[in-house]
């Protein structure tokens, strides 16, 4: 819509064809006026930054349509012409700017090449929209395009693209539409809560004082199934970017409350942002004391064993990282009877020289656990083929069992090598392993450039048999952002993870074929959320999720924090016989509740469980 107005810019009355800011934004993702040079007469300057200034026009009577806009300029001369509170007229080019070379990032509607800037009046009031009061983000879905039974986690993904569909915004229903409908708008967030550590640019994922779902006891939001039974990836979150005045955001930890911010909504680097006018302050902090697990083995009850699982983030014998891990195992996990460890590197860590043995890494770890007051452990692992299992090049990460020989003994057998497949042998009623320990189907294409599961058979103090599967599935690296163009977002490696879970399920089935009541614990870093149900579809009919057995609330089921959500990548599954006996479990947030990003020892939190084998 264009309108003809009488402008009193000059002493004589000139007829100028004028455009409204709301006309530029429109009610869809893309501007109806892209590529057009327009005159604006109703622009109130609301904020200034190094990349231009923000204006607000008259509000539309339509929450789909933003009345805010970035006027892009890096010219100090142009920037010096305007001040916050000025009403100006100007001419500019409407553009859809893609802020980086990544084609999955959305474009930003903005005005470029501003000219003819005339200040009409100064010191006008600037009134932000107060989020949580004037309007609030939806809490369930990101985009109407995330179709499929698993919502934003559905496969196949990238079935459509925001850019191409250019949908009419539905800000009451979809999180991306909500933030898009505020493009360039000045907003206030009351009482922001940090839901992640700052990223490397000092940017902070946060929620404000508005309704949220999936909130955990620390204040973060956990990926859960929504009331509609569809995965909820928490679209009500937003990232607080670099402050416009050049100040630095504080070094936050998860759960810290910040002072109110006022800033502008924008899109960059694959996410909707609020760029605050100035950095907020930390108003309150949660406690950083971590209670050690309450789940210790009960010496009088031979049927009970304690199980730990911990991704120790590229642990090598070099440096102090290994001592920090050992300290966690001794003092926070309190020396579980058996610990499933992932990401143990070879003896010279990432040095890429053909070394694959982790004997020194493990002897160093075991000594450090003892030195930290923990129990005496022995270890079991199988060296991979050099550089065949992915991860940091030359690090040769693998899974390892630490076990206390007084509590569990490894059943005598022949240890497998990297490429030997373990078979289920034995008789009906007493399955056994052809190799102990062994690796599941290591030459299966599902395990290419990925860690092969480490299987072992144990005899417990009670004389019962326990099978364990320690795994670390292929990672999500290279996935598209949660607020990117591809819908549902590209979840990299999802097909390979699905095949890997299938191989684990097939192996468990072979054990069950000989003993339906077998004790099996399958644990580790699955690199996937259980809400991505299609990935686990082959396994969930066979094994039970420990968190569900132990009755952990879904919002407290997390071991990892990435971008805007707390999420569980590390799962423990129990066989039906074990699940039927009940279990207790605790995710110990010793890393995600750290006082700072730098204070974390690993990117994953460990888990401790107490389970029954008889
Ligand atoms: C913008 O206004 C100027 C006069 O200030 C006029 O010359 C020009 O044609 C107008 N442009 C548009 C696109 O209306
Ligand atoms: C996007 O949709 C709006 C509203 O229907 C339309 O005006 C605009 O031209 C569309 N842009 C593109 C690139 O499809
Ligand atoms: C705004 O829209 C609502 C309904 O959509 C209508 O009732 C109201 O009269 C409109 N107000 C103005 C000022 O146009
Ligand atoms: C998504 O699909 C589109 C259309 O096929 C393609 O151009 C684009 O590269 C894909 N994006 C990703 C991240 O794979
Ligand atoms: C979210 O999307 C799903 C379809 O994927 C739909 O069934 C559900 O009603 C939506 N929830 C809300 C709150 O809009
Ligand atoms: C396992 O082998 C060791 C010797 O390697 C032997 O002492 C022990 O008795 C064996 N245990 C069983 C249960 O066969
Ligand atoms: C043994 O484990 C079960 C299941 O976790 C638990 O209910 C029980 O209290 C434990 N017994 C002892 C003596 O710790």
Indicate the structural class: alpha+beta
**Rg from C-alpha positions?**
28 Å
The small molecules bound here are: 2-acetamido-2-deoxy-beta-D-glucopyranose
Oligomer: single chain
E-strand count = 37
Strand content: 25-35%
* Bulk shape: elongated
Strand order of the largest sheet: 8-10-17-18-15-12-11
The CATH class of the largest domain is identified as Alpha Beta
CATH homologous superfamily identity of the largest domain: Endonuclease/exonuclease/phosphatase
CATH architecture of the largest domain: 4-Layer Sandwich
Report the total helices: 10
Helix content: 10-25%
If you average the pLDDT, what whole number results? 96
The biggest beta sheet is recorded as: 7 strands, mixed
N→C terminal distance: 75 Å
Count of the domains: 3
Say what the CATH topology of the largest domain is. Answer: Deoxyribonuclease I, Chain A
Keywords: Signal
Protein name: DNase I-like protein
GO molecular function: catalytic activity
InterPro entries: Endo/exonu/phosph_ase_sf, Endo/exonuclease/phosphatase
């Amino acid at each position: 819509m264009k309108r003809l107005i009488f402008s009193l810019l000059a002493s004589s009355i000139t007829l100028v064809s004028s455009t409204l800011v709301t006309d530029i934004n429109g009610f869809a993702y893309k501007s109806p006026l892209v590529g057009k040079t327009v005159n604006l007469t109703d622009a109130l300057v609301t904020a200034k930054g190094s990349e231009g200034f923000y204006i607000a026009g008259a509000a539309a009577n339509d929450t789909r349509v933003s009345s805010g806009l970035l006027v892009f300029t890096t010219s100090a001369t142009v920037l010096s012409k305007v001040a916050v509170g000025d009403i100006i007229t100007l001419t500019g080019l409407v553009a859809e700017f893609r802020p980086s070379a990544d084609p999955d990032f959305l474009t930003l509607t903005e005005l470029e090449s501003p000219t003819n800037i005339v200040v009409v009046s100064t010191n006008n009031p600037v009134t932000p929209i107060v989020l949580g009061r004037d309007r609030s983000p939806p809490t369930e879905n990101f985009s109407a395009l995330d179709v499929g039974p698993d919502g934003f986690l559905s496969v196949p993904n990238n079935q459509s693209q925001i850019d191409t569909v250019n949908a009419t915004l539905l800000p009451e229903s979809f999180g991306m539409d909500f933030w898009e409908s505020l493009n360039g708008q000045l907003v206030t967030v009351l009482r922001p809560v940090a839901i992640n550590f700052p990223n490397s640019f000092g940017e902070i994922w946060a929620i404000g004082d508005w309704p949220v779902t999936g909130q955990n006891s620390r204040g973060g939001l956990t990926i859960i199934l929504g009331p509609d039974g569809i995965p909820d990836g928490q679209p009500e979150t937003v990232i607080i970017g670099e402050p416009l005045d050049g100040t630095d955001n504080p070094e936050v930890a998860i759960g810290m409350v910040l002072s109110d911010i006022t800033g502008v909504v924008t899109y960059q680097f694959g996410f909707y942002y609020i760029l605050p006018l100035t950095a907020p302050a930390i108003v309150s902090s949660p406690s950083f004391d971590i209670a050690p697990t309450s789940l210790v083995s009960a010496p009088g009850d031979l049927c009970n064993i304690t199980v730990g699982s911990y991704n120790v983030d590229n642990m090598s014998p070099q440096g102090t990282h290994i001592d920090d891990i050992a300290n966690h195992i001794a003092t926070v996990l309190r020396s579980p009877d058996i610990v499933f460890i992932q990401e143990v590197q070879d003896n010279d860590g990432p040095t890429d020289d053909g070394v694959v043995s982790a004997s020194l890494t493990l002897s160093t770890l075991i000594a450090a656990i003892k030195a930290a007051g923990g129990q005496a452990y022995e270890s079991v692992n199988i060296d991979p083929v050099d550089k065949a299992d992915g991860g940091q090049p030359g690090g040769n990460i693998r899974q390892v069992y630490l076990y206390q020989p007084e509590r569990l003994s490894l059943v005598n057998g022949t240890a497998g090598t990297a490429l030997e497949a373990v078979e289920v042998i034995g008789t009906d009623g007493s399955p056994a392993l052809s190799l102990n320990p062994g690796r599941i189907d290591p030459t299966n294409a599902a395990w290419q450039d990925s860690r092969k599961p480490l299987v072992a058979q144990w005899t417990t103090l009670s004389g019962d048999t326990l099978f364990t599967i320690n795994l670390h599935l292929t990672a999500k690296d290279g996935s598209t952002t949660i607020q990117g163009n591809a819908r549902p977002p590209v979840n990299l490696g999802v097909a390979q993870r699905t095949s890997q879970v299938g191989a684990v399920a097939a192996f468990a089935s072979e054990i069950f074929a000989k003993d339906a009541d077998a004790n099996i614990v399958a644990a580790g870093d699955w690199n996937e959320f259980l809400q991505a149900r299609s990935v686990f579809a082959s396994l969930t009919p066979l094994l039970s999720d420990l968190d569900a057995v132990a009755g952990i609330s879904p919002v407290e089921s997390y071991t990892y924090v990435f971008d805007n959500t707390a999420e569980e990548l590390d799962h423990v599954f129990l066989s039906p016989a074990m699940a039927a006996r009940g279990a207790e479990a605790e995710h110990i947030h010793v890393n995600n509740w750290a006082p700072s990003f730098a204070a974390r020892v690993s990117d994953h939190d460990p888990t401790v469980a107490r389970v029954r084998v008889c």
